Hints:
The structure holds 2 protein chains of 2 kinds. Chain A contains 5 helices and 5 strands; from the N terminus they run ββαβαααβαβ. By secondary structure, chain A is α+β, with helices and mostly antiparallel strands. The model of chain A has no long low-confidence stretch (mean pLDDT 86). By secondary structure, chain B is mostly helical. In chain B, 68% of the residues lie in helices and 0% in strands. Chain B is built from 17 helices and no strands. In chain B, helix 4 (103-127) runs antiparallel to helix 8 and helix 9 packs antiparallel against helix 14. Mean pLDDT of chain B is 87; it is low at 481-493. At the A-B interface, helix 1, strand 3, helix 2, helix 3 and helix 4 of A face helix 2, helix 6, helix 8 and helix 16 of B.
Amino acid sequence: MSNLVCSVGSGQMPKKLYAVAAEFDGPKSLYAAAEKIRDRGIKGWDCYSPYYIHGLDKAMGLGKSFVGLFTFFGGLSGLVGGFLLVTITSQYVYQMDTQGKPFFSLPGFVPILDLLLIMPSAIFSIVGLVVLSGLPRLHHPLWDWDAFTRATHDKFFIVIEANDPRFNEKASIDLLKEIGGTNLTYIGDEE
Amino acid sequence: MSYFKPTTNPAPARYDLLARHEEAETIQARRDIVREPYVGNDLSAVSVGDRIAAVVENPAPLWWYIAVSIAGGLASFTMIGILYLIVTGVGVWGENKSANWAWDITNFVFWIGIGHAGTMIAAILYLTRQRWASGINRAAEAMTIFAVMCAAVFPGVHVGRVWFAWYMAPIPNGNAIWPNFRSPLLWDVFAVNTYLGVSIMFWYVGLIPDAATMRDRIKNKILKYFYAVICLGWRGSARQWINYEFCYLMLAGIATLLVITTCTVVSSDFSTSVIPGWHGTIFIPYFGVGAIYGGFCMLIILLVPIRQLYKLDDLVTLRHIDMCCRFTLLMALLITYIYGMEFFIAYYGGNSNEFYHFFENRMWGPYWHTWQLMMFFNCVVPQLFWSKKVRRSPWLAMTIVIFPSIGMWLERFIIIVCSIHRDYLPSSWGMFYPTWIDIMTFAGTFGIFFLMYLLFIRFLPVIAISEVRGVLPEANPHDPPVVAAEKNGARHE
Lengths: 191, 493
């Protein structure tokens, strides 16, 4: 299976289409274009930019990120696990008498519980980022497109993926042309 | 109740007029504030990336090789010192009874303090929307990680028999004894490890988009592979960016909580004891302020040569140096207040031991010169930063902050050695003198720190490319009201 990237109008066309993509030259044109695609109700599309564009999630009609849930449950599991660790060991497993202080002393446990809350919530936030963003990835069809290497540098892209059942290749190209996209390209597999 | 019902028709014409008037006033007010741009010389997003990536892409300059050899040579001092300590015993240091903590813990608190400012810049300034900090946060976070690594050397080694250091981990040891979770020294182990871990995670998440940028730019095959692995296959799609921004926000909040916790825990090592000079509730803000103070000084020492040698002065602008100097001055004032408050409490508290410790031993005792130097370096020297001219002369500012950096080390020495060398029992009073192993081990940590830092600026983007691009005016997809109103006058465009 080899990958094929060919520009629209060149007469070539991949047999198995992954997506049609277009290039934009700035955050403003990307933002305006994203609003129009959102209003068409298209599913399975994405904008690519070298930096976070403020408000683009609204222009695309995306909801809030769920990373916060990972943080919360990570912290909760750390807190509960930490509480069990210090309580069971200090109270039941090995009672260490230091200057007659109580074996179960919540004020004395606070710093440990706090730190055991922080560590897993940080780890789970990153797990959330990685899982929700579909990372890590060794390969992606878009990386076969040479122009796409500039998505982390100075170019902005909109990619309409073909996995939507209502995907219409011709209408998508017309739409991308209409909203100001240039360098329209098919991305897919040769066979 | 219909009497109180609001009128349904609030005279639309007048309301409109008022709103328009207010809008015009706001535009005028915004026009009057001339804000210094975040990035100098009107750099575009493309040239921001080019400038920062050039540091990594161009061949290393000669000075870099010289600096790496010097730092590497210096770093070996710590290795030799630790090796000698492990094969001989902890007696090779100058510790004795009753000064059983000395340079080891001084160095530990000194380095961990430097770490705190990095997190403060990256996390707290991020949460408070201080967007100018995007130019220096990567450098500051890297400083945090390397400083915490240097700090971790000392508590790990000062236990003496380092092969038993794993007793500090929350697992039962050979005799099925669990650690005492109520002990401040165990809190310390947890705090330092958590701090190191979370700092690395925070720094790493910031690096992901920049690593992707480097992956797409760099020609060198091996480095390309390296960046491709660490960026996890980042593509910069909007769906990834919203998760990324949210994750960064969460980590910033977590790191802020962690800075406060770590200052608290490190200061609890001292303040939970009953030794005069340690037994103070002021220690928690005291250590926090001292940490941020020392860290900002170190950051200025790092940033000034980097911006000059790599020609990054449009990205780390004079405004950044100015802001760091202002923070330094603020912390100097706070620490002066705290020094004064320590003396006031010693006087007002009416405890004769405390009184003796502060007014006789600390001021006029055998370490009087250390105390006076500390007061001069930490409280007097930074007052030069009241002058804008001084704050905006990078090399002068860098020279000035070397003094409080030394002063902050002296402060930790005063807190530790000066407090314990004369305890409650005069028959056990003594003096602490460092041995050459003490001096070597400490000097070597600077080598470790600068070696790590030099490697960092060689292989990773020293400034957060995507973040700086994000604060440029061209990155804003909306027309700001001032620009919209001035389209004809064209002052901003």
